[in-house]
Design brief:
MetI-like, transmembrane, single chain, cell membrane
Amino acid sequence: MAEVSLRHRLAERGVDRTLLLLLPAVVLIVGLFLYPFLYGLQLSFTPKTSGIFDNYRTFFSDPFQSETIWLTLRLALPAALFNVLASVPIAYKMRGRFRGKRLLTAILVVPITLGTVLTAEGLLTYLGNAGWMNRTLEAVGLIDEPIRFVPGYWGVLLSLVITGFPFAFLLTLSYLSGIDPTLERAAATLGAGWWERFRRITLPLLMPGLAVTFCLAFVLAFSVFPSAVMVGEPSGETHVISLAAYRAGWEQYDYPLASAIAMVMGGVELAVVGLVLAVRSRLYRGSSGGKG
């Protein structure tokens, strides 16, 4: 009898046999994420000479290495911000019904399937010194010499925008679809125009979702690696932090230093995400309003 009573009390608190369904996910997370993370963390503190912080000291004392933080932020922040802001008006329009909606959605999401390599090839073809853009501008007499879009900062930024926008768009569309449309209809019956409805009803309800979307877009952009090599200057203005970790690990075979750089990379991402979520929680304390 006591056993049955205990089982009921645990069930009321959500503790029952269905929790066993979480076991595969827990094992997967521990095996694929926690163990590699903890192994890399302890490896980053492996002393080279005398101190356990030698690898971190080596990274921050070398300006060529430490400036990769700023160079990566310089790419990731504007790319994430642009993708989120650009996705709002498009997703706002796409949540309604109109002819050709599915085709337009497919076109907007297609860049996900292209991959970084095809995106880089496209950028080189269109925006390279001998690309269509420069040849067209020269043909109409607007420029005398090719404008350098790629390789360089703008090439990598455009690559991040192209590959990151579909994710931001789909997330924003999901959040917008979860907002009750009757709220705007009620405001419309009171005489509110579309801008007033968007600014006073939709946008406040959407902001929590946009904060999460920005965090995901930022993390995706901050881990930029292939495009920084293919359409950037890997030894110059697109010497990003993931590239520094790769060179330390697989060119210099200094795995402790590579682990330390990876930990710094994760720390910067965590700081930005934490800051955005802190602002989100301070400005908005209600439900998200959308499906997120």
